[in-house]
User: What shape does this take?
Amino acid sequence: QVQLVESGGGVVQAGGSLRLSCAASGGTFSSYVMGWFRQAPGKEREFVARISWSGSSTDYADSVKGRFTISRDNAKNTVYLQMNSLKPEDTAVYYCAAKRILPGTQYGYWGQGTQVTISS
Assistant: This one.
């Protein structure tokens, strides 16, 4: 069973950048597809980005394409989310999640979340 711990959140001005990190432990990191999700106040949690086990494939929500980049370092058991050109609407709690590399599996492991606040 994998445990996930996010870090790197904070308060930045619009147009700024942040890099989130998610450290994994307790499992074989390269066996998991990793994702980032976020939840803004009063809204449902939404998908932000995902990365394949090898890092060769990524997907993004339309709202963050061209501004956010997901990456992973399997040697460090860590996944990252580089966020540039931040907007006030990016304000949310950001969660890291993992799912096994099997068809049809869901994200079954979640971190505790890290707050990102963008001031206008």
User: Anything to note?
Assistant: The CA atoms of residues 72 and 79 lie 4 Å apart. The two ends are 40 Å apart (CA to CA).
